[in-house]
């Protein structure tokens, strides 16, 4: 049995062969005291001290009781940092930093490295969201969700090391083609359903489903990425939260109204996304006028083109039900909907269903599906975007507990 502690979030974790337990104190001191007490009991019962940690140096290679997947954790191996990677190209850019194609110097393996600016994160009060992203990524293991291998920090920046998914964003392909066939939309929607179902079962709301956050791998399968707005801890059907966040076009009505909301908001976003993939634009889209778009999301009649199949219209209507209590949100019911008729869900999760579109990818380092505006960006330094910060200048303890290294 192993006891670990994440002091930043005031919780500690007990990992047993059969189940993982998370306990949280009112303060970090409470959590430390409980951890010490339980650790002492375990030491007396099974011999040997439990492992306890704040930021790193914890070993765990247990299996998740629900899905049988190896569960990664921080380990006692050599610490990995920015000097272990060579930057090759900028492949993405966001509010707090850039995403790079990088190569690990000792193995030659390519990854995507997301580099975030600490100062910007703190100034915009996004520390909690950033730590939540690391927390979610370090726990999930699913074929249609992004995988985290390492996270570490420098004096000025945070770094996520993840798979480099080089089939391009769904947004990129949708922009090029204008719209997708219903067959292609069905395939992507089904893989997203499985990804959301997995997250929801683990108490996580995704909250930012949109084409820009969906990547295609070299085979043509969807990978959900960017968990910066995800929220953990909603472990039962009655759990709700209230933070206003997301992307305007995909926000559920209850978020716009400032109400408590549940995991049902993700299914509203999926309905919006399905409409957009078939139509080319979201159902309530208004260019450069978020206020009017919010008003349309709240009150405008849903108008679905007659060119949509009856099955697609019915599914979208049920996802875009403004009442979250009657909105379609049960994964079993979703899978049985006529829009997905004939789909073998087990074969889908096993990646035995042939994708309707295979990206043009020549190698693991191929950047042909990346928008040119990103590729034209300068690589910059490892401390980019932190003027005035000097090497060795500490940025406080806001990001304590950020370090992670995948095992197994």
What is the tally of beta strands?
A: 11
Order of helices and strands: EEEHEEEHHEEHHEEHHHHHHHE
The profile of the biggest β sheet is: 6 strands, antiparallel
CATH superfamily of the largest domain: Transferase(Phosphotransferase) domain 1
Helical residues, percent: 25-40%
Strand order of the largest sheet: 4-5-6-8-7-11
Q: What would you note in describing this structure?
A:
- This protein is an alpha+beta fold.
- 29% of the residues lie in helices and 15% in strands.
- It has 3 domains: 2-46, no CATH class; 82-165 and 365-405, 2-Layer Sandwich (Phosphorylase Kinase, domain 1), CATH 3.30.200; 170-349, Transferase(Phosphotransferase), domain 1, CATH 1.10.510.
- The strands form 3 sheets. It has a 6-stranded antiparallel sheet. A 3-stranded antiparallel sheet has the order 1-2-3, covered by helices on one side.
- The two termini are 18 Å apart.
Secondary-structure blueprint:
Blueprint: E1 2-6, E2 11-15, E3 20-24, H1 28-46, E4 85-93, E5 97-104, E6 110-117, H2 118-123, H3 127-137, E7 148-153, E8 157-162, H4 170-177, H5 182-201, E9 214-216, E10 222-224, H6 253-256, H7 264-279, H8 290-299, H9 310-319, H10 331-335, H11 345-349, H12 372-375, E11 404-405
Antiparallel strand pairs: 1-2, 2-3, 4-5, 5-6, 6-8, 7-8, 7-11, 9-10
Helix pairs in contact: 5-7, 7-9
Observed structural traits:
408 residues; alpha+beta; Phosphorylase Kinase, domain 1; Transferase(Phosphotransferase), domain 1; 3 domains; six-stranded antiparallel beta sheet; three-stranded antiparallel beta sheet; 29% helix; 15% strand; globular; disordered N terminus
